[in-house]
Input
Amino acid sequence: MNVGVIMNKTSRNLGLDIARSMAIILVLISHAKSFSVDYNLQFLGVCGLLGVEIFFVLSGFLIGTIIIKNLVNNPSINSLKEFYIRRWFRTLPLYYLILFLTAIISHSIIPKRNFIFLQNFNEHALNFLAVSWSLSVEEWFYLLFPLILVICLKIFEKKMERKKIFFIISISIAMFSLILRLYIVYKYNPSWDYGIRKQVFLRMDSMMFGVILAGINIYYKNMYRKFIESKLSIVLSVIGFTMITQFYIWNMNSGKLFDESIFSKTFLFSLISFICISFIAWMESSIVINKKLIKYSISKLFNFISSISYVMYFVHWIVYGLMLNILHGWKGACLAIIITLLVSWLLHILYEVPIMNLRDKIDFRKKNQIIAEVKI
Output
């Protein structure tokens, strides 16, 4: 799962690092339920649900901020091209490495669909590196939203201010995703997990919630600040996550499967996204976190987990699968998490960081070339 952008040390936001760290920890906890042999821990699935949704909204918030600064303010083909290059440098090298490692370890062939993020449209292909479904949703978001936005800006910018176009397109895509979800559920009644949760065009609204939040933060700073200062954001977050957890567990204990719930297939995802934007807005703006907690050593732990979270999302799936063949119970789960952290850190240092440095060098050369052309 791509979790946004790698920030430099001077621009890190501790609150967002904590949110990102919490998301990956929730995913690790959710999948660790497979190690249990004596207890039924299926209720921990709610951790995975919330963790991925936090990732989605957080990615939308971070990418939305980038899109406003680089594409809305300069809606050109070159800006769009640069956006794609930076995104693909960030997400694709690690993803393809993990694909090949998975194929080697599992002695299987990589489905062709997985190379171009079409695995979500075929349940069999999705069985290969199953956690890649969320990255597939994000990659389609990265591809489509900026392209649609730039085209609309080019067409309508003389008739309408760019800020208005941004919000119209963002809200329209979010509404389209929800309406399409309602239609699919009414017409075909698919399964909750594969049929709805993991379908690309039915989940775009989760990231669009984050994009809209980014727009409010940039264009309506007073509204954003009042929302934070009113403490409404943290209240909605605590109450919301508590209610979703209770709803999830109640559905499981009562025997009411999500496949039978129309609400779970439609509005539940929108509700979780709304709770996530409240949570992210509070984490991003909290003075306690970003001014006070940052002085303590524990902030470095969150910085570390956040920086390797993208690698961890893929690596833990492989490590858990291998460890389940060797050791079960809490010992197996703990050892799998420790190995995941170690391998993720090594891949981050030896693979991710060099690729990011290469990306920055390419950008640097491009900037130098532009400067040279201006001087000439």
In short: The chain has 16 helices and no strands. Residues 14-375 form one domain. The two ends are 44 Å apart (CA to CA).
